[in-house]
Every structure is written in C-alpha cells, then in structure tokens.
Known about the structure:
The structure holds two protein chains of two kinds.
Chain A: E1 26-30, H1 34-45, E2 50-55, H2 58-68, E3 74-78, H3 86-96, E4 102-107, H4 111-120, E5 124-128, H5 132-143
Parallel strand pairs in A: 1-2, 1-3, 3-4, 4-5
Chain B: E1 2-5, E2 8-11, H1 13-16, H2 24-50, H3 55-74, H4 78-97, H5 103-124, H6 134-145, E3 179-185, H7 195-203, E4 208-213, H8 216-220, E5 227-233, H9 238-245, E6 251-258, E7 282-283, H10 319-379, H11 384-395, H12 397-400, H13 403-437, E8 439-441, H14 443-446, H15 449-460, E9 464-469, E10 474-476, H16 477-498, H17 502-507, E11 514-523, E12 526-533, H18 540-549, H19 561-566, H20 589-598, E13 602-608, E14 612-620, E15 625-633, E16 636-641, E17 645-651, E18 657-659, E19 662-667, E20 670-676, H21 677-680, E21 692-699, E22 702-708, E23 710-720, H22 724-727, E24 732-737, E25 743-747, H23 749-767
Parallel strand pairs in B: 9-11, 16-25, 20-22
Antiparallel strand pairs in B: 1-2, 3-5, 3-6, 4-5, 6-7, 8-10, 11-12, 12-14, 13-14, 15-16, 15-23, 17-21, 18-19, 19-20, 21-22, 23-24, 24-25
The structure holds magnesium ion.
Amino acid sequence: MKAKQDFPSINERAADGLKEDGTPYRVLIVDDSMFVAKQLSQILTSEGFEIIGTAGDGEEGVTKYKELYPKVDLVTMDITMPKMDGVTALEQIVAFDKDAKVIMVSALGKQDLVKKSLLMGAKNYIVKPLDRKKVLERILMSLK
Amino acid sequence: MYLTASGETLHLGSMSDYLDPNNEELLQDFFAEAESQVELLEANILVLENDPRNRDAIDEVFRAAHTLKGAAATVQMTELAEFTHIVEDAFDRVRESNADVDGDLIDLLLSAVDIVKSMLVARADGSIYDGDQSVVAAGLAEFVGKPAETSARGQVSSRPTETAHPSPPAIDADTDAALAVCVGFDESNPMNSVGGIQVFAALKRVGTIVRTEPDFDVLYEDRYHPEVRYFLSTDADESAIIAAARIPDVTTDIRVEAVGPAGGGAPLAGSEATAGSESRVDADRPTDTEPAAGQSESPDKVPERRRSTPTGSVLRVDSRRVDDLLNLVSEAVINKAAFNQVSGEFTDELALLNAGTDQYRILMRQLFDSLPEYFERMQRGASSKDVKKELNERFSGLYTHFDDFAGRFRQSLNKFRSNTQNLGRIASELQEGVMRIRMVPISQIFSRFPRLVRDLTRTLSKQIDLVIQGEDTELDKSVIEDLLDPLIHCVRNSIDHGLEAPAQRLEAGKSETGTLTLRASSEGNMIIIEVADDGRGIDVKAVRDKAVERGVIHASKTLSDVEAFNLIFDPGFSTAKKVSNISGRGVGLDVVRKQIEKLNGSVTVWSAPDEGTRFTIKIPLTLAIIQGLMIRVGTETYAIPITSVVESQRIRPSDIRTLDNYEVLDVREDVVSLLRLSRIFGIATDPDPTHYFVVIVGSGDKKVGLVVDSLIGEEDVVIKPLRDHFTNAPGIAGANITGDGRVSLIIDVAQLLELGLTSERNARSTTGAVIGG
Ligand SMILES: [Mg+2]
C-alpha cells in the first residue's frame, strides 16, 4: 500500500517545512496520544519542519507555547485530552497571542468542536486517522 | 529525515513510509499505545466500580476508548476501531447524561476490555479476532440507546467546551453588504459539514459578514450544504476574497457577486441572470475525491508479516533524562579538554625538570671541582668565614633550585586531582543516567492487579481490598518484565490460601473484607516488593509435616518458624488441601524463587497465625549492575552476586569433612556441601594451602559452600553478556570488566546450587544425613 506521495522525489524541490530563508518552520505538537504525536512528527520532520516541542495535554500545551513564544510558527492541537481539552487550550493560546497559528487535530465525528475551534481562531483542522498529504497540505496552507 | 547540503534537500524514503499500515515501527508504536490505553481503560472502569460518579474516571474511559479507536483506524484494524467506537459512544452518553455507571455496565465494559485485548492479541499474531463480540456490542448499543436519565441532553454537560454552539460572532446587520460570496462545498470531504463554518471564519478575516444563506444557526448544525452564500462588506478585492475562502478539499467553486445595498434584505436572486453583476468562477485545483489512504474504510487487511513481539522493545524515555545525559556528555568533553591541558603541563614540567636536573648536575660538579681550591685558600690563611660567604654566593641557588618546578608541578597535580575527581563524578552520573533511561515505574505491572484481584475475589466469593503503595518506584525495564509472573503467583497464593472467606474472617474476629497490600520501595541498589495479606497465615505444622513426608527435611530436624515458612518455596511443595485452579496449576512457589533468583534477587516469606503472610522480594535495581563479592581462584578473579552470599568463612583444609566422596563443612549445627571452584572451572591452584575461604551462597534451605583461594572485597559489577561459546559454561552468568581493566567472570549461583543440590541429594540418600539450613 505505498502511495506515490510516500516517496518524495529527490532534489526536485525544497522541503516544504522550510521558510524562504531556509530555516525550518517550528511546530509545537499538543496531543495526549504518543502514537499520534509520533505520526505528526514523522510527517513533519520528513519535510524539514522542526518539532520545537511536544505537550501531552492542553495545560502543558499552553504553558509550552508561552515558554517558547515567539519561536512557535505553528501548533497542532488535539481536541480530546486530559486536564485541559484542545478547544480550551486554543482559546488560551489565542488570548495570549492573537496571531498564533493553531491547527486542530480531530477525529471524525467531532464536527461541532471543530467548528467552534475555527470560530475561535483555529487556522484549519486535520482529520484522524492522519494522511500524510492532507496533513502537509493543510499545515502549509495555514503557514503561507 | 532530510539532509540539506548546498541548498539541496534529500528525502529518505524510510521515514515517509512510517504511515504505511504495514510499517513495522508503526505497528510497534501502535501496540505500545494500545496497551497503555487498554490499561487506562481497565483501571478507570475499576475506579468506577467503586465510585460510579467519578467524572474524571468517566472522562478517562472516554478518552482511552477514543484514542484507541483513532489508533486502530490508523493501522486499519477496522474491527478494533468499530468496537472501541461503541465503547466511546457509550461513554459519551454517560458523560452527557450525568448517569451513574452501574454494576451491569461495569461487567459489560470489562467484557469489552477483554474483547479488545483478544483483538489485539489476534492482530499481534497476524490474524483477526474471530470470537463473538455481538452480545457485548449489543449490550453497549442498548445502553447508548437508553434515554438520558437525569437531565435533558445538552442542558447539563460535563464538557465546558461542548455547550450549545456559540452565538454567531461578528455578524453585523447594520453594515451594508456589497458582495455575495457563493461557495460550493465538496461532499466527499469526510467532515463535509464543517466547511460552511470554516469559510465563515476565513471570510471574517477579510471583512464583515452581514448574514449567510442558509442562516448561521443552520450552518452550525451537523449537516452538509452544497452551497453557502456569505454576504460580505469588505474593502478587499475579489482575488483576496477568493483566496481567503478557498480551502483545498473543502470548497469547490467560489463566485463573488456584487449585490445592492442589502442591509439584511433579500439578496439579488439568480446572480447569473442579473445584468451588470460581475461573476467570477474559481474552479479549485482538481480535488482529490479519492478518500485518503488512512481514511478509507477498506475491508480488513492483515499485515502479512507475523508479529511475535509487538511491544517488546518500545522504551518511553522522559526527554529530560536524555537532556541530563547530554549535559553530562558535554561535561565529559570539557573534562577531556582539562585533562589534555594538564597533560600538556606535565610535559612542560618534565622538560623543566630535565633542564633543571642538568643545571643541577653542572652546579654540583662546579661545587665539587671548586672544593680543593677553597681548601687550598683556607690553608693559605683565608678565613673560613670568607670562604663560607663565597661558597654561599656561588651555590646557595642549589637549595631552591627545584622550587619553581615543584610549585608548578604541585599546581598541575592539583588540577589533575580535581579533574580526576570530576571524571569520577561524571562517569558515575553517566552510568546512573544511562541506567535511568531504562528505568520504568513499577506501576506498569502493579496496574494489572486491580483487575486480577477483582476477578479472583469474585470467583472465590471473598472480599478483598487491594492496597497498592509505592507504584512510582522505578526499576529496570528488563527486570520489570520478568517480575510480573512471580508477583501474580504470590498474589494468587495470598488470595487462594491466605485470605479467608468472609464467614471465616468474622469467626476469627476480623472484618469481613481482607486486605491485600502490594508495596514497592527502594533501598540502596535494591528494590523491595512486598505482597502482604491479613489472612490466616501459614500453618507451620502442616508445612513441616508435609516437608517430612516429602523427604524435603528429616523428621528429627529442628526448624525455626522462618525456616519452615521458606520450605513452601521447595519444588512441588503445596499446602493447599486440594489443588485449586487458582494457585494450583501444577506449579508451586518454587517457580517464584527460581524466577526471582534469575534476576539476582531473593524471596522470603514471613507469617504469623491469624495475622497474615508477607512475601518479600528483593531484587537489584538493574540487571546491568550488581554488587559483587570479588574472589580469587588461582590467578582468576570471579564475582559472586552479593545478594546470594549468606556468609564467608576462613577455614583450614582439615575442617573439610568427606561424606561419601562429597566434601562438606560443618557450619554451626548444619552441614553444607562444598564445591571447589578450582575443580569446576579447571583452574590450577596451590595443592597444599594453609587455609581456604568458603563463601556460602543460596538462601533458605538451599545452600552450598564455594571453596575459593581468597576474598578480594565488594565491588559494583557491570555485567556484560558473554559471547556464545562462553554461555554454555556451567556456573557462569556473564563477564565483568574490573577497575584495572581485567575481565572477571560472574558466578551463576542458581546453577551452582543445582550442581550442589544434586551432590547433596546423592549424599543424603546414601547416608541419611540432614543437610540444609
Ligand atoms: Mg486525544
């Protein structure tokens, strides 16, 4: 089951995860699932993004964002998490930095929460299970 | 992974394969995640059993099921994803309705967890679960279908974020809309009801949305709308509006139409027909209507490769621990530089010393050469005072000739010493740090016990409170894996034999509910794990009688209670009147001892009638480092794990008795059989020494004395696994590099005990001698 996009061509184009100045976009991954966090980081690092931090719940996510500010170019935010859910974390991050770029990571069936997040300022959303192409597409769209 | 070299980027295929559902690493990560979620699921269901209103536990169960579902979908294990979805739904229901979780639901959920486990086991074996899940699924589905008990859906919610949808933000009905943006939506998008709001949020950034068609409220509902019109008041130009509204995969075509002053009035109908209205169609890039690989509801595809150890080698390490190591490594690098510097200084000082020595020799020669001249002058009448003065002037430098060198050398030496000290600290911290990477909390296995105890108490109609303490205690991952079985065995033994049925407990004047305690703590380099119950205790007499009957001990043997208790670890020993299916199973506690000894640990038991029984397991923190007693045989050095050393004695050759060709030693009132390591390992030693040392190893009733030439002392021993051709050597567990760089072998006490016991038994069967401790 190898899709074409699994084999990015060599030397044809610059990695998507790099800014125009050649430095990588820095991403903070907030997810209570190590498995999902790893999938995201695999997809992103393969395109040259830098994972600047990870957090296992919303509370930690907000703290890390504030700690790392202004070095975070993008946040991927899970919705269902312990301690503080992703929508609340999004709210707090946007309150702290209104230009924060946050992308929600949602399972199918959480439409209402995704809508709520988008209205609160989330730049986009990604659906689980993750698809490499879609993840990159939606993240890049929010960055450029 | 990518490498950048002169602006070029290389993509390495291996990493981008990660999401391939057949990727080994992906599957391994999946099983690790699934295992932890199942554990979480089970633990919180058990919490709910005792505390049906615990909202945190309800949330945890929901989340665990949710995470598991997502993970299963990622690796395309459809049966698992679908089944966990039912559990997730059921708990969503519980969360929303604020309902209590009753006993029936608990049973149902535990059965569901068991099914999930079986599904995982099947997948790990490369097959698909084919058991019956319909009853549990139907039960849970029925639960979901029940009307909410306490409050209307949506009115009371435990989820602050999922209250009724927000009121339409930033719709400004007073502003005149100048434009209508008509956006088409792709129905094949898996979340096709979100697009309307997503574009709403996007357009809000370029202008003011006056109203939408359909209404905002309708857009917010979970329904797909093929086209939505946004009435927008904005200064932005059309291309900017289209760019803002266009979302790949979500939107199809976008038109921007001019409308008259609307003020909330009806938009101009049929824009295409309206003369003068500008219309621009933006066909989006060809959309990928094919569902994404990960999202396809494809029929079950079993990974072709069979997976034998799905979760074996995944080690989760706190990143702070790795950071600590990196810090230490940089300290080590600095330390190396400091040593280099001192080395340079020593080289300079050696040169200084050499030059100084040469000068010194020259001066000494001058001194000696000049002496006759001075004698002559004194004979000729020069005053000794003048001669002395002149000598002093010429040669007093000899006194301080090396002072400069000595000062510099002392400085370098001090530096060298402090560097050495630093190196020692860094090395031991590094060692500790690397070990800590392998450390996992014992909660990883303790967490299995609530379920086990619950199921056993039900089967046996007993009432037991399980108390778990010290679950944060950490030990080596490889140790922890081998610890589960012995612990299960001890716990089963306590529940089956130790803790009484409620009626019996009342009779004995105890509370109906017994207490079983699992406790872990660390003590220096050892971890102590206790399994304690407040049951009836071990029947000393029964144990003794049985031991005599089985020939484990002689009838005339006097045993202390502790010695009698420890007889239960003897092979095949079981005090239960009949073999139950719980601790019976044909294995006794001897297996526990064997497994613990393999971990270089020890197990003992304490008991008091009607007060209870306590198993105490002691194991080293890590398998990689043990405390060893270093001994010498001939020219060879061996290490004996200190945990198995009972005592050591200096004896004369004449203290060794021979009992039927076997050498034995009287130790107080016991007789211990002796093994000469020189014979076992074929080492030439002094044939007629004045004395030997005997190291008595083993525990409880199994002891053997190892005859060695000398004792060196205790040392931390780092175990290195041996290459194949060594591992067959009997009695050797591994190798160790000693402080001076020599290799010493580590004695495998368990194997030597076997060897010793064989000879002991043979000796006993022929003479009837009482042997043991
Ligand atoms: Mg989650």
